[in-house]
Design a protein that fits this description.
Layout (H helix, E strand, L loop, with lengths): L1 H9 L5 H10 L1 H9 L8 H7 L7 H12 L3 H25 L9 H17 L6 H5 L1 H8 L15 H7 L6 E4 L2 E4 L1
Antiparallel strand pairs: 1-2
Length: about 180
């Protein structure tokens, strides 16, 4: 870990093969830091910026995700989200509906219902189901208590507005159904 951290801080032209190998070899430590961050009082942002800054770069973030999931993340994104997203959203929506007449409603259900209302508002008048499909991201962020990972910007926002709207890296940017990580 220290060697990778030093390489990142030095910003030298280090052999990418060496960095990739070190990154791959330290995967278990990366997961340990990420999973145990709350016990140390750290937010995910702190872990990424101060301990594993390579994870703030697209190629390493994707490499980490591919090791974690054992799949090519971008390929799955492009082929599956349109099909699986609505099913997942439907499942979560049905779960929330099961509490409509309940006396004790979990706080998470109220916040999820707000996310659904926001997605419905964003999708009003559109033929596309993209707003409801993209709802999956705030739901995942909420589940892992990292809601600050999601930033909403206006569709007609300029590049500078989009860049200044997020202060966290890596960030996911979805434009016209395509995923960008920066």
């Amino acid at each position: 870990m220290n060697l990778l951290l030093n390489i990142f801080k030095a910003e030298d032209e280090t052999d990418e093969t060496t960095v990739n190998q070190l990154f791959h070899d330290t995967y278990v430590s990366q997961r340990f830091f990420i999973k145990r961050r709350e016990a140390k009082g750290l937010k995910l942002k702190d872990v990424l910026e101060n301990h594993w800054p390579h994870l703030t770069e697209e190629s390493y973030f994707l490499a980490h995700s591919e090791i974690l999931l054992g799949k090519k993340v971008q390929e799955i994104w492009h082929t599956s989200l349109g099909m699986k997203g609505p099913l997942i959203i439907s499942y979560v929506n049905d779960y929330c509906r099961s509490y409509r007449k309940a006396k004790n409603i979990p706080l998470a259900v109220n916040s999820i219902n707000k996310e659904f209302a926001d997605a419905d508002k964003a999708g009003k008048g559109l033929k596309s189901r993209m707003p409801s499909t993209l709802l999956i991201f705030p739901l995942i962020a909420r589940k892992f208590q990292e809601i600050d990972l999601i930033v909403i910007v206006e569709p007609n926002a300029q590049d500078t507005e989009v860049q200044s709207a997020h202060d966290y890296s890596p960030s996911l940017l979805i434009v016209n159904g395509k995923l960008y990580i920066f």
